[in-house]
Amino acid sequence: MDNIEILVANESHIKYVDTILDTIEIAAAKRGTGIAKRSPDYIQQKILEGKAIVAMCDDDFAGFCYIETWSNKHFVANSGLIVAPKYQGHHLATRIKNFAFNYSRKMYPEAKLFGLTSGAAVMKINTKLGYVPVTFEQLTDDQAFWNGCKSCVNYDVLERNDFKRCICTALLYDPAKHIDDKKPVEQPTKTVFTID
Ligand SMILES: CC(C)(COP(=O)(O)OP(=O)(O)OC[C@H]1O[C@@H](n2cnc3c(N)ncnc32)[C@H](O)[C@@H]1OP(=O)(O)O)[C@@H](O)C(=O)NCCC(=O)NCCS
After folding, report:
1. Is the CB of 122 under 6 A from ligand 1?
2. Residue 178, by phi and psi: left (phi above 0), alpha (psi -120 to 50) or beta?
3. What is the whole-number distance in angstroms between the Cα of residue 124 and the centre of ligand 1?
4. Which domain holds residue 73?
């Protein structure tokens, strides 16, 4: 049995940046899908800003995602989700996403949360969180966000479609549509659980 801890990443996790990026790159190559590639400096900065969530099994890296803001913080994305292969299939991605969702909602309560994904697991997880599929026009028009797609193998498809559609599905959580939902639970600074 392994104890997994999910928490907001801090300085002590900077040594895992290369492992995180390698794990993301290997997974993308295996799936044959595109990703918005991020540099080690970018991920390090996210960690130092308290905008990254990490899952650890003692000293072993288990999972990760980071938080980005766009359009003057009107839009928030929880991106770069990765679970190390040996920890997959235990709902760790679900827990990381839930953690990042509550953390993002607390930091940016008025912001719309969104994601672009071609992955079935993320579609499932985000749908359970209250995201709905939308057209690309309903996402941020912040050029800096769309520039992130330049490193994706499908960027030519996006360009050809005038940035209106691509391989990915757009998912959006609009807090204005959830005003009757109960307030997000107080976000713990970390959560621990056990997998077999
Ligand atoms: C995708 C990934 C994050 C899933 O991690 P995980 O911890 O195994 O996921 P979970 O166990 O939380 O699965 C969540 C749900 O998605 C389903 N699921 C998981 N992987 C799936 C897959 N490859 N295809 C379809 N459904 C999948 C699970 O069955 C689960 O459904 P349930 O809630 O109905 O039981 C992990 O496989 C990974 O890191 N892959 C490589 C990177 C990647 O694809 N990132 C996503 C970028 S969009």
Report:
1. yes
2. alpha
3. 8
4. 2-184
